[in-house]
Structure formats: structure tokens, C-alpha cells
Amino acid sequence: MRWLEFPLRLTDKLTAWMLGLMLVAITLILFVNAMARYFAGIAIVGGEELARCLMVWMTFLGSYLLVRTQAHIAIDVLAIMLKPATRKILVMVICCLGILITAYFFVLGYELTVRIFSSGQRMSSVPLARGWFYLSIPVGMGLMCVAFLQTLLATITGLAQPKVSDFSLPEVEAAAVKAAPEGKL
After folding, report:
1. Does pTM top 0.70 for this prediction?
2. Each residue of 48-63: pLDDT tens digit?
3. Is residue 149 one of the residues assigned to a domain?
4. Which domain, by its residues, includes 29?
């Protein structure tokens, strides 16, 4: 199980950096496009389409990190009322369902991506193959499948999972602790 930790931690850090860069790129693209349209009366061709493509990539890659840190929105009323042993079984069932669903969508996304790349479709205003847009599906679903598998193995063996705080900057975390009311963080 330890052999899986290093590549996953590396993937986590790389994904977190990519998400940050994508967010900055989307913000800059839309800001520059809005300013050019407002002040110069021109629109940057392809800016909105590129921002949309990056947003889709952010969604799928971000979902991977949310699975890794167990930060997806969850209805945990039932889980809180269960005994720890029963809660562990519930987590294992959820992980197995997650593995099956993400593996299924990985296969569908892969087939769709291959079909789109082989058809030679291009994006309407950006000189890129439309397959790059669809590639986010198998990449994100494959990463989520691996994350669910790792969570299942960690639940069985009792190993620790990464936390959301592992991906925040130390200064931001320290400021949040300082700004939070006593004992409320």
C-alpha cells in the first residue's frame, strides 16, 4: 500500500498546481476579453471557448482531489449515527460503488475521446482538436477511480488519508486559524 502513496501524493500536488494555474488562466482570459470588449470594442476570438474548456478540466481534476481528501458534498447523517465498525463498512461500500461508476465512465469517456480525436473535429474558434476537451473525462474519471481504490485500501488497512489542509498555503492556513473564533476551526 505504501508504494501507491508517493505517486498519488505527487499526482495530488501536480493536480493542485494545475488547478491553480487553470483558475488564473480562466480569470485572465475572461478579464482581458471583457476589458478589450468594453474599452476597445473588440472581442478576443476563442477566449470564452478556451475558458470553458479549462473549466471542464478544472471540474474533473478538482473532483479527483475532492475524492482524495474526502471533501465531496456528502449526506452523513446516517454515517454519524452508525457505530465505527458499521461506518467502516459503509465507507467500503461507497468506495466500491465509486470504483465501479468511475471505471464505467472512464471507459465511456475513453471511447468518446478516441472517436472525437479520430474524427478530426476541431474547436470552433480555437485551433485545437475537440478531443482535448473530451480528454478531461477519462483523465478525471481514471484519477477518481484510483482515488476511490486508495480510499478503500486505506479504510481496510487503517492508513491516513490526505486532508484539504495538505493543499493550502501555510500563510493562508495560519491566517484562517488566527481569524477564526476560539475553538471554531
Report:
1. yes
2. 999 999 999 999 999 9
3. yes
4. 2-163
